């Protein structure tokens, strides 16, 4: 996804979020949110990382850069399969236009398993935080490249008020320095360059030491093998977000178990 792609996505997101917000029944959303008790996204990752590998398995049907990834996408059975295969948490895409996701997918995935779920979307308004909990999310994603410092803080505070964890995603050191004082439960380093699409684990490897020591450290993008996980775990990552390589397989449990079992066997 290029920076131009990101700008287009954000412009569209602000329009559709404003429309949803205007037509929403806030009282109904608040009642739905109150019925969901967040399950501790960051704490689940830490528990899984103590004696094994904490993988955030991503449910993603398509992307702007890769097109259709999984035509036969069905959130509930995918969630059940990935949880049974050992995922510590799930990440569920809810952007409709660019990733073919939905809040329905989030709600279905969350209901189908007991592990915490991240709402993966372009968060630009506190209304989306309420939506997230109302649709059974346990955490939200904040993308530093997409938000001003003020927007990051406002959304982080909204998440805290809703008892949702935050995974704050950065792509480079400049972004990292902007978010260090946000006190998020988890920080992710995405090894994909937004301008060139190039993915290099060198990015995640070099930045880990600068991440807050009291937060869960998540490596994102470019993770395909147990060796990739071992390399990143060695420099201090607690958890690993893996999506496309799972979603492209007929049974995503097979590649997930392959990522997990060799490392667990060594322990």
Could you explain how this protein is built, in words?
With 267 residues, this protein is an alpha/beta fold. It has a single domain (5-260), classed as Aldolase class I (TIM Barrel), CATH 3.20.20. The protein has 12 helices and 10 strands. The strands form 2 sheets. The chain has an 8-stranded parallel beta barrel, surrounded by 8 helices. A two-stranded antiparallel sheet has the order 2-3. Strand 5, helix 6 and strand 6 form a beta-alpha-beta unit. The termini are far apart.
List the helices and strands and how they pair.
Elements: H1 3-23, H2 26-35, H3 41-50, E1 54-59, E2 62-63, E3 67-68, H4 75-85, E4 89-93, H5 103-112, E5 117-120, H6 126-134, E6 139-143, H7 149-161, E7 165-170, H8 173-179, E8 186-190, H9 201-207, E9 216-220, H10 226-235, E10 239-242, H11 244-247, H12 253-266
Parallel strand pairs: 1-4, 1-10, 4-5, 5-6, 6-7, 7-8, 8-9, 9-10
Antiparallel strand pairs: 2-3
Helix pairs in contact: 2-6, 4-5, 4-12
